[in-house]
Amino acid sequence: MNDVLPEEVGRWQKLERIFRSLVELYGFREVRTPIVEDTGLFVRSIGEATDVVDKEMYSFERHRDSLTLRPEGTAGAVRAYVEHGVSKREPVTRWYYLGSMFRAERPQRGRYRQFHQAGCEVFGEAGPISDVETISMVYSLMTNLGIEGVEIAVNSIGGPGTRARYRDALLAHFTPKLASLSEHAQQRLQINPLRVLDSKDPRDIEASQGAPSILEHLEDADREHWEAVVAGLQALGTPYCIEPTLVRGLDYYTRTLFEVRASSGQLGSQNALAGGGRYDGLVASLGGPETPAFGFALGIERVLLAMPEEPQRVAPLCYVAPMGVEAQRLALVAARELRGAGLGVEVDGRGGSLKSMLRRADSLGSRFVLVIGESEVARSVVALKDLVAHDQQEVALAELVARVQALASRPVETTGGPA
Ligand code: AMP
Prior knowledge:
Layout: H1 6-25, E1 29-30, E2 36-38, H2 39-46, H3 51-56, E3 59-62, E4 65-69, H4 74-83, H5 86-89, E5 93-102, E6 114-123, H6 128-144, E7 150-156, H7 160-174, H8 183-191, H9 194-197, H10 202-208, H11 220-236, E8 241-242, E9 254-262, E10 272-278, H12 282-285, E11 293-299, H13 300-306, E12 318-322, H14 325-340, E13 345-347, H15 354-364, E14 368-372, H16 374-379, E15 381-386, E16 391-396, H17 400-409
Helix pairs in contact: 1-6, 6-11
Bound molecules: adenosine monophosphate.
Adenosine monophosphate binds at residues 72, 103, 105, 110-112, 115, 117, 249, 272-275, 297-299, 301-302.
């Protein structure tokens, strides 16, 4: 679990801002749900025999209830959607969320126990449009964040009918290889053989070679949906690659699945930036009406690792350097006036030498320093130093705001030196 210090927060805010403004263009509105939910909610939605539920949940007992710190955002969003009868008010609902998630995983670069996700859910649309638009939206988001060369893997795991057929085919593939599978996969094979395809264990990866492709087992309606998704991505020019072994770790998915990966850079094995898919059965299984749905979540820490570095410094525009007690009073008033006009100000409160105050202004990156000494106090003026234009002038307090605004909006003329 990490602290995010102010030096890094600027990048978080940039990501959050770009995320919000893009998804709002698609009609998504923000929802905020609790960080703690009933444990049963996650067991029922994410599914037993998943890594998250079996090994990674932070669960605890209180007043005989079993509660869990949310490991992902969809279960809580669906619970809220059902609990507030949202489907009765609107036929289609688009929600987005941002927040902390918790999984007791083995930490490594890009994998944390408290991490943050930004995600979207569309409720009420069964057709392929929401699949195509959402996947393409995530691609645009990565582009808007300056992340290049992402890879988008897509697959369909069909509906329950397709999966029953595929399950038989997978059992036929894995059963003769049972002894070579990891213990974990051996246990999972009967519960959900798709899980074995999702295993990271080298023995299971080896045994999965040559496994039948689910895309060859799609029922007609599932295939029609899948073909329309692929055609839509093509029409929008959203790059994708079809990956028949992509099954993803959560049980609630149906039909389209996708994962966005960083193709290069610092992420190593933790290169999944975002993932999601269709979950047409989940709302009903959590007690709501039959409601098709599509959603995704991106990992904020991972996306930040993939985003290009750029220097980010938010310096107050003005630094006020008062010398003496009376000067401090004038400094307070000057600062209030400037801030009232929306200009950033830091007032020196240390009372050191002018030199040390100028050094502080310089290291902050402030453009203006307001020097106030006894003679300035006596005349209600400040000495306004422009550290960029290397210029100084005396300004009456009453004119300070207008003068700073005028100087700040004027391009600085630099003389001499190479361009
Ligand atoms: P998931 O909910 O497992 O589909 O994950 C969606 C995204 O969340 C992944 O693609 C990652 O970017 C991110 N993510 C999942 N688990 C972690 C974790 N433990 N630490 C950091 N990011 C994570």
